[in-house]
Amino acid sequence: MDRRRMLTLGGLAVGGAAALSSAVSVSAALRGDDRAAEHHAHGDSGSGGTDAQAVTPAPPVEPFSVAMPVPPVLRPTYVGATSDLYQIPVRAATVEILPGLATPVVGYNGQFVGPTIKARKGRSVALQVTNQLTKPTNVHLHGGFTPAAHDGHPMDSIAPGVTRTYAYPNLQHAATLWYHDHSHHAEAEHIYRGLHGFYLIEDDAEKALRLPSGQYDIPILLRDALIGADGSLVFDPTDGENRPTILANGKPQPYLRVAARRYRFRLLNASLHRIFRLRLDRGQMIQIGSDGGLLPAPVPVSEVKLTPGERVEVVIDFGTQPVGTRVVLENTSGPVIGFDVTSTATDDSRVPDQLIPLPALPTPTVTRDVALSFDPSKLAFTINGKTYDATRVDAQVVNGTTEIWRVTNRDTAFGIDHNFHLHLVQFRLLDRDGVPPTPGEAGWKDTVHIPPGSTVRVQATFAGFTGKYAFHCHFPEHSSFGMMAQFEVVNQTR
Question: Among 2, 87, 148, 388, whose CB has the most other CB atoms within 10 angstroms?
Answer without folding.
Answer: 388
